[in-house]
Amino acid sequence: MATSSSLTPPPVPIELHLRNREKLLNSIRHHLSQSSRPLHGFVLLQGGEEQNRYDTDHVDVFRQESYFAYLFGVREPGFYGAIDIATGKSILFSPRLPAEYAVWLGEIKPLSYFKERYMVSVAYYTDEITKVLQDEWQASGKPLLFLLHGLNTDSDKFSKPAEFQEIDNFDTDLTTLHPILTECRVTKSDLEIAVIQFANDISSEAHVEVMRKVRAGMYEYQLESIFVHHTYMYGGCRHCSYTCICATGGNSAVLHYGHAAAPNDRTLEDGDLALLDMGAEYNFYGSDITCSYPVNGKFTSDQSLIYNAVLDAHNAVISALKPGVSWVDMHKLAEKVILDSLKREGVLDGNVGDMMVEQLGAVFMPHGLGHLLGIDTHDPGGYLKGPERIKEPGLKSLRTTRQVQEGMVITVEPGCYFIDALLVPAMGSPNTTKFFNHEAVGRFKGFGGVRIESDVLITANSCKNMTKVPREIGEIEAVMAGAPWPLDKAS
Ligand SMILES: [Mn+2]
């Protein structure tokens, strides 16, 4: 069967970013009037810069900074962008490129090109920022800049406020913009959802392609290669949303396997379970999908047991998700469904409520149930207001504790892993040893783990699963045996 695709990369209307700017403008104006502050000042963001590899002239492929991408959709490095809160005018500032750029890197585009391409009111050069903003300023005193400064609660790093020469000629506000702009990114517009859907469609198709080609004897990185090729070849996706995790055998219990020190380089063996967490990014917006299945295409009874425990948790959460539901409750629901299954199958023993009190769920699922998804894989806004992080195992790893709301895109990714570093202490602890059927748990030594991850859009009354991969064991085994996907239900 020749490799091909039913998909082509869709054109993305630049209105997407124009609407994002309008959303911010409305939010910030609303906030300023609520706090009885004047409706003027400039939102000023600095776009990303190209990065060299250490001291060399090797330049990594540039990917725009996410907040800047959200508001302006600019793919080139070195830009600044401003929004005039008084007038709503949007202004892009392009770097003034040297003449030799035309020799090495191609045509130097005129300002009119950027004005049209990015649908802004006007475009200037970055060395004109001070003059342009002073001329635009209608009020008295120094012009006011709203700069982006705030904590990313996933990375614990701070966004970098715009810097430029002569910034001393301005008043700056470092606290207002970040929470407002971040909150804008938490719910997605229809145009954003369409892009995330395409990233999901092409990534789902690529996962199926990997599923069809996986064989014992291959290297893990060959699965990564098939995925990346498919999403780039047929989806135009130059970037993945994150480093591909292609974990097989015992590696599937390493949550973020695939990094430079563990570069997806194990040889697949018959009888292995594969855990493949891969997602492509399209026009800045990402996807985040995990499939778990046996390398040889046939689930053993123990593999089925763990897989179905996780699938039941995944499906239970998706059935329960709707606006107003607490993400903490969803995490606990997933834990409970997994513990119920492990008890039913004789791996655990005792009362599941008591197990929950002792936080046994976090022994098998030490990560959070999922996270907001958008321009960043871990999209910001998880802890913007309301409750602080919970300190308990498992729950402390939650990337949000919010109630879900319509328009959020969030991943649902329960997992069940046999991680010695967690199991051994729990099986030895006086509080929890009684819950384990030690002999049954022993069967899972070196098993690794299962994760099932889908991207879900919260709708008015429920949710929609944007990920379209085989999930039932019967579907996976059929597709791995050569059946088309989606399965032809009629035949
Ligand atoms: Mn994820």
Automatic annotation (TrEMBL):
Keyword Manganese: yes
Cofactor entry: Mn(2+)
SUPFAM superfamilies given in the database record: Creatinase/aminopeptidase (SSF55920), Creatinase/prolidase N-terminal domain (SSF53092)
Enzyme Commission (EC) number: 3.4.13.9
Class of this enzyme: hydrolase
InterPro entries assigned: Aminopep_P_N, Creatin/AminoP/Spt16_N, Creatinase/aminopeptidase-like, Pept_M24, X-Pro_dipept-like
Aminopeptidase P N-terminal domain boundaries: 12-156
GO terms assigned for molecular function: manganese ion binding; metalloaminopeptidase activity; proline dipeptidase activity
Source domain of life: Eukaryota
Alphabetical list of Pfam families matching this protein: AMP_N, Peptidase_M24
GO BP terms in the entry: proteolysis
Keyword annotations of the record: Dipeptidase, Hydrolase, Manganese, Metal-binding, Metalloprotease, Protease
Catalytic activity: Xaa-L-Pro dipeptide + H2O = an L-alpha-amino acid + L-proline
Keyword Transport: no
Subunit structure, interactors included: Homodimer.
Similarity comment: Belongs to the peptidase M24B family. Eukaryotic-type prolidase subfamily.
Protein name (record): Xaa-Pro dipeptidase
Organism (species): Rosa chinensis
